[in-house]
Amino acid sequence: MTAYEHLQPSYRQYAALDTDERIAWLRADRWLETSQATSVISRLEDLLSYPPRDRMPCLLLYGDTGIGKTKIIRKFLRDHAPRFDRGTGVTTMPVVAMQMPAEPIERDAYGELLNALGAPGPQYEAAWRLKAVCRSLMRDMGVRMLIIDEIHAVLTGTFRQQRIFLNVIRFLANDLKVPLICAGTDLARQALLTDQQLAERFEAFHLKRWSNDKYLAQLLSSFASIMPLREPSDIGTAAVRQRVLELTDGVTVRIFRLIETAAVEAIRSGSERITLESFNAGELVLPLISMTRYSERQLQRRIGR
Fold it and tell me: Which domains does the chain have, with CATH numbers?
């Protein structure tokens, strides 16, 4: 009989590893497909195929912190990674993703864009010069989509700074004729609404929190089928789903951390499986303060140890 039949065939080998190796595997970064993520990536693929035109379509991807926006962007970037042509010595980069600077300052915006293009410019170069270099590089590298993460940070600036920054990204979208993708928290909508002309171009995709439905059941079943635990886990029931939601408020990163923590504890304790009781154990140390939902008595007992 094949060992670890409760796991997908390609993941059974990991259950045979020793304790430290299995814990390291659990803590490694990985991609799990979800229905919302699939929908976003499908829309991004569609926008990437758009032919250049005067008013390119744009997309706002927004939701709570930890809901999975950056994870989706990184997956899309991996699917459309830069390519270096040894014959011509030219790198093509169909998708470029930049981080929103700490302040919405024009020069800093171009600096972050140059970093994303792999060509950091002089720190104190004039904004107009940095803009010219960005435009030239993006054309030469065949950029067909610009992504700006953490766009809600534009609200940290003054009203004048906000207007200038939004003009910068609108200029780039118009000049290069590429779709503009902005990602951020719910405040991102407020940031874009300060420029009505820009807001008219954006579709909005809201990444919602998880609820006790078939999609959460599918996610937990996916976890159960790949985690290197040597016994079948019982995490697909309605009771487990409800408990997970109570502890995480349906935020993706919290769910991932919670399942990871419970799995590590299952390996260390020798139980080798996750059940409803795994989430009720008083000694289970949750890795995020925002996930802690224990009573004050339980918290004080843990501190007193």
Answer: 9-30+210-303 (no CATH), 35-207 (3.40.50.300)
